Amino acid sequence: MGSSRSLLIFIFPFLLNLISSTTAQDDGICTNTAYYCWKCSDTGMYTPGDMYQENLNSLLSSFSTNTEISSGFYNFSKGRDPNKVNAIALCRGDLSQDTCHTCLNRSTDILLQNCSRQREAIIWAEPCMVRYSNNLIFRIEKEDPVKCVPSPNPAKNSQQFELVLNPLLSSLSEKAASGDSIRKFAAGHATVPGGETIYALVQCTPDINQQNCSNCLKEAVLDVPGCCGGMQGGRILKPSCNLRYEVSLFFESTASSPVNIPPPVPAAPAPKEGMAQF
C-alpha cells in the first residue's frame, strides 16, 4: 500500500504537467456559442486614459467606418513609440462591406471590454477577426495563440469523412495561399460517399506571403484531428490564418465551388503465405 501511494505521488505531478501542456495549446475564452473567442496577451499593460489607449480606440473604430477598402482586410498603425498601436482586421472573404463593418464594430467592443488594459489582444468572431499590438505584426506569420472550436455532432462515418475532409482542406489551402496581397481566401465543398457534404473555407491575412500562408494553413490542418477529429465541423483560429468546415452551408453559396476528391487508393492485398516476394 505504501509503495503504491509513493508511486502515485511520483506520477501525479507528471500527469498534471502533461494535462497542462495539452490544454495550453488551445488558448482563449469563448462565448457560450463560441460565436466570439478572444485572447488577452500578458505582454504588457497600458494605463486607462493614457496615449496608448487613445490611439487604440481611435484605430479600432476606424475599421468599421472605412469605406475606401472593400476587400475586408485592414492593417493600420497609429501613434509613435512607445504608444504606437498596430492593428489588423480581417473579414471573411465572402462578406459584404456592410456585414464586415458590423462584425468589426461588435468585435472591437467585446475585445475592449474583455481586454481593457492589455497592450496586445485578439478576437475571432465567426465572420471576422481583429487583433492589435504594440509590437510589429504586419507581414509576419503568427500561429499563436490558437483556438480550436469543434462541432458537438459526430460524423456519420468518421473514416470516410476524414478521407474527404483532408484533401478538401489541402486543396483549398493551396488555392488561398496563391492569392494576392488583397485576398487570400478559398471556399468549396465535397461530398462524402454515402454521407454528408462538407463545406469548408480557409483564409490568411493577405499581408503574409504565399509560403507563410501555406505554412500557417498546413499547421492548422494538422490541428484538426486533435481538435475536431470525428466531428461534423470545426474551426481552427490563429492570428495569421483560420479554417472552418461544417456539413451545412455557412458562407455565401456564390463563394463555393465543388472540389473533386480522387477516390482513395485501395491498400495492396497482403501476400499469401508461402509465396516468394521479389
TrEMBL record:
InterPro entries: GNK2, GNK2_sf. It comes from the Eukaryota. The keyword Amino-acid biosynthesis does not apply. The lineage of its organism: Eukaryota, Viridiplantae, Streptophyta, Embryophyta, Tracheophyta. This is Gnk2-homologous domain-containing protein. It comes from Malus baccata (Siberian crab apple). Residues 1-24 form the signal peptide. Keywords: Repeat, Signal. Residues 34-137, 143-250 form the Gnk2-homologous domain.
